[in-house]
């Protein structure tokens, strides 16, 4: 009887250990949950959105330094990515890729140009009609270097992005935003706080 109890306890411990290892593997290499803390990606992503990030899409990476072990796809224009903030790698940021290696990026009176052509994509907005001095409304031109991307928030007038702190190195990229699995509006009443219509939406 004692041997059976020990065997059952051992099986339970082994199952827990295996589950933890699998969970850690999945979080490190496959998919990770992320919560939107700010309004820099409005209207595409809202404060309180919870999403899953595909970490496998851009290749299998060394979790310590971000170097790619097994290369797969590379970030493309229009991808919404989660990455380590260049000025503080302990923070995760989420923005849209607007320029990849070799692209020429420029902002003229709020309008974004990539390779001298207007960059048109569904989502980005301007909440401030005024043209203000500084990098927000007039920037560049710059050429995106190898092994880097240029990113901007969809809330173009209220986004702290590559216009202000530069490029994102490919090793800092954690993955591509994939799907919304939960959305919570903390400012709404309890009955209306869950944004049911957003749950399950693909992110693009």
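Sequence proposed for the structure above (204 residues):
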């Amino acid at each position: 009887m004692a041997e059976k109890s020990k065997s059952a306890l051992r099986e339970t411990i082994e199952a827990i250990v295996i589950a933890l290892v699998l969970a850690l593997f999945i979080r490190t290499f496959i998919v990770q949950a992320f919560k939107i803390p700010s309004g820099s990606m409005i209207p595409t992503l809202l404060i309180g959105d919870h999403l899953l990030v595909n970490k496998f899409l851009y290749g299998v990476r060394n979790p310590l330094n971000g170097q790619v072990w097994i290369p797969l796809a590379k970030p493309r224009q229009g991808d919404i990515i989660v990455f380590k903030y260049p000025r503080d790698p302990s923070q995760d940021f989420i923005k849209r890729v607007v320029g990849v290696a070799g692209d020429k990026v420029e902002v003229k009176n709020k309008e974004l140009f990539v390779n001298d052509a207007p960059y048109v994509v569904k989502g980005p907005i301007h909440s401030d009609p005024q043209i203000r001095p500084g990098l927000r409304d007039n920037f560049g031109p710059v050429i995106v270097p190898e092994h880097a991307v240029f990113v901007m928030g969809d809330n173009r007038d209220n986004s702290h992005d590559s216009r202000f702190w530069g490029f994102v190195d490919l090793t800092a990229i954690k993955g591509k935003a994939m799907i919304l699995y939960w959305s919570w509006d903390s400012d709404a009443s309890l009955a209306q706080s869950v944004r049911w219509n957003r749950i399950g939406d693909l992110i693009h």
